[in-house]
Amino acid sequence: MKKYLFIAFLLCTSFGAFAQKFAYVDTEYILKHLPEYKSALSQLDVASKQWQQQVDQNFSEIDRMYKAYQADQVLLTDDMRKRRENEIIEKEKQAKEFQRSKFGPDGDLFQSRVKLIKPIQYKVAEAIKQIAKSKYLDFIFDKSSEATMMIYASSSYDVSNDVIVKLGYKPGTVNN
C-alpha cells in the first residue's frame, strides 16, 4: 500500500499541470488535546484493570485448586481424583472463556473501545475534512500513522493546530 501511495505521489508531483496541495496532521497530538478522548481512555483503563483483576483471581483460584489436588492426590481414590481433575479443567475453561470474552478480538474491551473512541475519531475526521476544503488541500496525511511514512515534512504544512482550534480547543495546552 505504501508503495502505491508513494508512486501516486511521485506521479502527481511530476506533472506540473496537476499542482496539488498537501498537508499533514498528527492525530496523536490532536487527540491529546481532547478531554473526551482522555476520558474515554480513562474509562477503558478502569474497565481493563477490573477485568484483569478478575482474570488474575480466576487463575489464582485454579492454581490453589491444583496445589490442593497435588497435596491430596495420594490420599484420593481414582473416582475422587478424576472428579477433582475435571473440576480444575472446567474451572480453567471458564477462566479462559472469561479472559477471551473480555480481552479477545471481539471482546468487551474491543467493543467498548469502538463505542467510546469511534465518535471522537469521526469528529476529528470531520474537522480535518472541513479544514481541507477551506484551505483547498488535496491530501492530508497522518504523521502519527504507521501506514503512511513521511521522510520529510515541513512544519508549514502541519494543520494539526487548526484541527484543534476547529474542535474548540486551544493548541499547546496538553494536560498529561
From TrEMBL:
Highest taxon of source? Bacteria
Q: Does the keyword Signal apply?
A: yes
Pfam annotation, one family: OmpH
Gene Ontology biological process: protein stabilization
Q: Where is the signal peptide?
A: 1-19
Give UniProt keywords alphabetically: Signal
Is Lipoprotein among the key words of this record?
A: no
Matches recorded under Gene3D superfamilies: Skp domain
What SMART domains does this protein map onto? OmpH
MF GO annotations: unfolded protein binding
What does UniProt give as GO cellular component? cytosol
Recorded family membership: Belongs to the Skp family.
Q: Can you say what this protein is called?
A: Outer membrane chaperone Skp
Species for this entry = Pedobacter ginsenosidimutans
